[in-house]
Amino acid sequence: MRTMTEQRTAVVTGASRGLGRGVARALGTAGYTVFVTGRSTDAGVTYPVVGGSVDLTAREVTAAGGHGVPVVCDHTDDAQVRALFDRVRDVSGGIDVLVNNVWGGYAAYHEDRHTDMEGPFWEQPLSVWDDMFTAGVRAHYTATVLAVPLLRPGALVATVSFFPGSYPSGDDQVAYSVAKAADDRMVAVTAAQLRARDVTAVALYPGLVRTEGVMRAAEFFDLSDSESPEFTGRAVVALAADPEVARHAGRCLVVAELAREYGFTDVDGSQPPSARPHYAGRLAGAPGEHSGT
After folding, report:
1. Are 188 and 170 in contact (CB under 8 A)?
2. Is residue 269 part of a domain?
3. Does residue 167 have an active-site annotation?
4. What predicted TM-score, i.e. pTM, was given to this entire model?
5. Quick one: which of 11, 66, 83, 112 has the most CB atoms within 10 Å?
């Protein structure tokens, strides 16, 4: 059996719940040591309506066959993020996979401030922009910056994004669409600079994911082609195991399309369809399209 320092090491930000929790579990199944970050702990959950904690996710990672390490971290606080990566360095020496997943953009939903997200952008509070960028794009950038010295040759940096970044529409929430486009551009430029370090950076587009937040409002969604949180995790595992993953550097990759490329399935054995046709069809050829595929 490998010792902890010999295991492959991953950091998954924002993994108390939702997509990050599923990604962490999938990495655990693949045998990784996974540093699970977030603000929620067993003793204090940030958003009780959706639950979850770094402690719970870390236990699930270990139960899946990996080694879960819970780290309480507010990703809007640079000192806490530096402390996270100092701990990773001290415990594991380096990083094989970084998943930028933390996302404060749904705070309004989790706090039942739904009206903040409704109506045209000029009627929404300015804090909506800050939620998307401070606890989203900037958090992804900060984690990437501080992780770079620890990224081992062949490492993967996967940033969770979404289709409105590449396929904008007038129906989109403005701050959300701009934030996702910013994440995509960050990936494209960082990938070019990381190539010399033999590190591959990509953006990942999941479909409709059955997170705790989505299931809380399940009556408003068509879940027939939805995905489990682990499905994106399996995409991360497949990419990290691909010796030729560098061919994807800088691209926005659709999880459902990766499932067909690499041959993995969701937890129920299905391969949900790609949502790309839906989003591309809303405003085909929109200015700023940069899917990279």
Report:
1. no
2. yes
3. no
4. 0.93
5. 11
Sheet holding 200-205, edge to edge: 67-72, 33-38, 9-12, 95-100, 151-160, 200-205, 252-254
Which of the following is catalytic: 109, 176, 205, 279? 176
Instruction: Taking residues 246-253, report their average pLDDT.
Output: 98
Q: If you count DSSP H runs as helices and E runs as strands, how many of each does the chain have, helices first?
A: 11, 7
Q: Which domain holds residue 93?
A: 9-282
Are 168 and 283 in contact by the 8 Å Cβ rule? The answer is yes
**Has residue 197 been placed in a domain?**
yes
CATH number at residue 268: 3.40.50.720
- 158 forms beta bridges with 99, 202
pLDDT in tens, 82-126: 999 999 999 999 999 999 999 987 877 888 888 888 899 999 999
